[in-house]
Design brief:
Elements: E1 3-8, H1 12-23, E2 28-31, H2 91-94, H3 121-130, H4 147-156, E3 162-163, E4 176-179, E5 184-185, E6 188-189, H5 191-194, H6 196-201, E7 206-209, E8 214-220, E9 223-229, E10 239-250, H7 253-263, H8 269-276, H9 279-282, E11 305-311, H10 330-339, E12 351-358, E13 364-373, E14 389-396, E15 405-408, E16 414-418, H11 425-440, E17 449-452, H12 459-464, E18 503-505, H13 520-536
Parallel strand pairs: 1-2, 1-10, 2-7, 3-4, 10-18
Antiparallel strand pairs: 4-12, 5-6, 8-9, 9-10, 11-14, 11-17, 12-13, 13-14, 15-16
Helix pairs in contact: 1-13, 3-13
The structure holds 6-hydroxy-flavin-adenine dinucleotide and ligand ABL.
Amino acid sequence: SAYDYVIVGAGVGGIIAADRLSEVGKKVLLLERGGPSTGETSGDYNAPWAAGTNLTKFDIPGLYESEFSDPDPWYWCQDITVKAGCLLGGGATLNGGLYWYPTDADFSVENGWPSGWQDHAQYTNAVIARLPSTDHPSTDGQRYLEQTFGVMQQLLEPQGYRHLTINDEPNSKDHVYGHSAFDFIDGKRAGPVATYLQTAEVRPNFTYKDFVYVSSVMRNGSQVTGVRTNDTSLGAGGVVSLNPNGRVILSSGSYGTSRILFQSGIGPSDMLALVKNNTEAAVHLPPQSQWINLPVGMNVSDNPSIKLVFTHPSVDSYENWADVWTDPRPADAAQYLKNQSGVFASSSARVNFWRAYAGSDGITRFMQGTVRPGAGSVNTTNPYNASQLFTMTTYLSQGVTSRGRLGINGSLTGMPLVNPWFQDPIDKAVLLEGIKDIVSGIATVPNLTLVTPDNHTTIDAYVNSYNPASMNSNHWVGAAKIGTDPTTAVVDTDARVFGMNNLFVIDASIIPALPMGNPQGMIMSVAERATAKILALAGGP
Ligand code: 6FA
Ligand code: ABL
């Protein structure tokens, strides 16, 4: 039982690749280290109030915030120091669900894409056809817990912002705001698991195996000859075999894919040396003569984000979602269980806005705001009303010039090695300017109060002393950047690893620079396009 394509990782990129390859008749094996997630996939991690239903923590959008207060958060990868999903669906199973159709500028040459990738529309439309976004996820079409929208309208309109349905005009990202859009369907989390995976799974030429951990690819020089796993049912020594001309696609996410490349002898020499010094991993590392020096883990970016916390008397903070797992508001829980309508049909975000800024280096950078009722932490010496709290996360998105580095330590734990936020002082200056613009409008909104930072702290002081770990947006891209030059890129314009015949990457790590919005929409479009490119490439199965 050998395969045409082995795909490593059933996350955003891997599932879409698996569906498109199996659709055209290729014999596809999709391997995932984690297990079931949503009810449809036999997941059974249910809140007490949803016991006995097929509505798991991952199905019910309103349980999203409870991921951060769970005493046993088994779903986060335990061997990566930042947040990543290690279960079926990867990040798409546990992310906030914000879903933006990518913009033309996201794929521009200026934004780091090689020429030939600008015409993304066909692929983005293919994604939209399978997985349309919604900005009113409740099955009754109503919006719930919307007080922050009214407040933001009062704050943004005087500053020249225009209200729109955000995904109706993806390219409009300057001075715009609207209701948050999600990849939810029928009041439940959808994403690639509920769509692409379902069509793949009915095909006889498609096989999905969970709880299979891939450590490396076996290779003979530039040819991958097998995939090394911990599952001996897949082949002698756990090695999965390929058909002649078979191909391997790594879709294990920014940290997971990089770690597999390092263990396969591909990457910077310091990372490969760590593998060589690790007794268990060293056994399978190719001899040094076969190492391929590529900038895996370099060129990494993530949006720097700064949170502001406000109160407004109209706002219902929803107790910061603290009780949603054990003790939700009874009427809201009952309404959701009845027909997937109400507050629980949405995750926490309610409003998004964007504005373009010109940096002193001539580069345009975009600020994104995400607003939600509730607040994770408040830092003020002033009294405030906790039931009226809301949080605005301000992100710097497309145009970010700072880059960091990710990699592993001697125990092969994945981690940032150089933080990517505010390495370039112009990124910081632009986000500061954006935050100050927002804050300057507070006085025009009756009873709107900024509580973090409080009125004893300047915005400069707040941003200057911000804990870098809290600036993380979980949007890591660029670790296996696409490009034309193997000194600066890891995969070529067909998503093939430089120096390899039959090894590819399809996930967030090939994306060279951040898009304007949260990235999963762009990753899906990239997965469609990269799969088409790989299929068109001569020499395959
Ligand atoms: N992106 C958005 O667009 N909107 C959001 O609201 C949003 N929110 C969040 C969020 O709230 C959190 C907490 C996090 C962590 C991320 C968020 N993101 C959001 C980002 C988005 O989810 C990620 O950018 C996206 O999931 C990345 O897609 P990839 O395809 O690159 O990678 P995944 O992590 O989804 O999938 C990798 C899969 O490979 C996982 O299923 C993993 O278990 C598997 N895997 C890893 N190593 C493996 C190995 N060695 N062997 C086998 N399987 C492996
Ligand atoms: C994203 O894209 C980010 O990756 C998440 O960090 C963000 O969620 C979601 N979307 C939704 O906007 C926030 C939560 O709302 C906070 O409660 C949490 O403290 C934060 O993530 C932690 O990173």
